[in-house]
Amino acid sequence: MNKPIYFDYLATTPTDPRVANEMMKCLSMEGNFGNPASRSHVFGWKAEEAVENARRQVADLINADSREIVWTSGATESDNLAIKGAAYFYKGKGQHILTSSIEHKAVLDSCRQLEREGYEVTYLEPGSDGLITPDLVANGLRDDTILVSIMHANNEIGTVNDIEGIGEITRAKGVIFHVDAAQSAGKVEIDMEKMKVDLLSLSAHKMYGPKGIGALYVGRKPRIRLQALIHGGGHERGMRSGTLATHQIVGMGEAANIAMEEMESERDRLISLRERLWSGVKDLEAVQINGDFDQRLPGVLNISFSFVEGESLIMSLKDLAISSGSACTSASLEPSYVLRALGLSDELAHSSLRFSFGRFSTEEDVDLAIEQLVHSVEKLRDLSPLWDMYKDGVDLDSVQWAAH
Amino acid sequence: MAYSDKVLDHYENPRNVGKMDVEKKNVGTGMVGAPACGDVMRLQIQVDDDGVIEDAKFKTYGCGSAIASSSLLTEWVKGKRLDEAEEIKNSQIAEELSLPPVKIHCSVLAEDAIKAAVADLRQKQIED
């Protein structure tokens, strides 16, 4: 067993060796290195063929038409292009955007930028289960709403929203619906025929593909128009200029292909690992799962261990690579904004860890995690004055703390 | 973030972990920080008849640096008179543990804790 054991598959995944193998064929002189935009020779034609094959593979994963896939540098760029691109293009129809407070920073910061430019944004608050429901969206819509952006699966707690239900509402009102599916693609079913989604962000490195490549689904029925953010050679039908990175794109295509083939068996395996982890730690006193238990990604649990501080718990679990939340915000000492939106106290948000496992996780990995977790939580609680007070029956909320 | 060897040593083998009877006349208790901020330190000192700190105990909820700061402090205050203990500065703790700038507040909290414990003890002695 290699240590530390990787339990941070929501931050990123290792590239599958089958994917890396396909990518390597697109780099050197002997390989498929041509510029897909070159029309005058076979090097270009072969590269274009590889890119279009990958486009079909990604489209198949979400049951879309391959003409609806636009390559980007990753989900962050896809989110930016979807939100700003739609907001700019449809400005004449209205200037209100509806999203939620627990979106990824790529969505939130794109919305903040639009606010600085004069748009109005409403941030829906989830219930304590972490879900953004169709009802919440229906109540947040205004006559001047042009765009709704709601994530499929949350990157900190793993909850999965009812995208099909939300899509029914937005389509009926003629409002554009963008979905950040970076965390859900390849893990749970996404079907653009069933889900009335107009724009959908995808990332390769969350599904065993390489970093630096993603895609944006741009629906054709009804036809969605975007104002480009990156201008240049007019690639990707003018929506995203820049020479296509054949090896990256082929990697994403192969990753999508493998994910689709293995989704069902992998889902069952990951759910059983998730349940194994939870049954191993749930008998510790004062622990809880954050976010709805059932409506969630297969391989994800966010757990609060009351009276133990998260950073010191991570420090003590040195054989486990885990995080206290999103990798994008782990440099900050602030408690997670997602957990706070669920109504967790700052203290409980500080005491929470995210476990995410995937394709290369095993039962032995989970068993070792359980053993170390139980040991560390008990050790740190012995060190914790808050645990003493809890055991003595003191209500921590009634104590006057000197905040610093 | 990489922790210094001294922080790791105190974190893995914390010294003087425990709890004293807060009611005892010769025990001073300092509890500082807040759960919402991610650190709470409880430092307790016990003095002998000559006013010298003969024992110290701590419990800390917080990151590794906060645990190490309070563990180190319990080692330092033993054998000191109250006025000497009060003079311990957060900068000395930060330097001894090589705390990075983002963790300086842990040493500040430790300094606050010993000051609060001494103040608590003095208050008890006045009331006596």
Approximate shape of chain A: globular
| Physical arrangement of strands within the biggest beta sheet of chain A | 2-8-7-6-5-3-4
Rg over alpha carbons of chain B:
14 Å
Helical stretch tally of chain B = 5
Round the Cα radius of gyration of chain A to an integer and report it: 22 Å
Distance between the first and last residues' Cα of chain A:
43 Å
Order of helices and strands of chain B: HEEEHHHH
Can you give the helix content of chain B as a percent range? 40-55%
| Low-pLDDT runs of chain A | 328-332
For this structure, the quaternary state is: heterodimer
Number of strands of chain A: 12
How far apart the termini of chain B lie comes to 48 Å
Q: Report the biggest beta sheet of chain A as strand number plus sense, adding barrel if it closes.
A: 7 strands, mixed
Secondary structure: number of strands of chain B: 3
Uncertain regions spanning at least 5 consecutive residues of chain B:
none
Order of helices and strands of chain A: EHHEHEHEHEHEEEHEEHEHHEHH
List the helices and strands and how they pair.
The complex is a heterodimer of chains A (404) and B (128).
Chain A: E1 5-6, H1 17-24, H2 42-61, E2 69-72, H3 75-89, E3 96-100, H4 105-116, E4 120-124, H5 134-140, E5 145-149, H6 163-173, E6 176-180, E7 199-203, E8 214-218, H7 246-281, E9 287-289, E10 300-305, H8 310-316, E11 320-321, H9 337-341, H10 346-350, E12 352-356, H11 363-382, H12 385-391
Chain B: H1 5-12, E1 27-34, E2 39-47, E3 53-61, H2 64-77, H3 82-86, H4 90-97, H5 104-127
Antiparallel strand pairs in B: 1-2, 2-3
Helix pairs in contact in B: 1-2, 2-5, 4-5
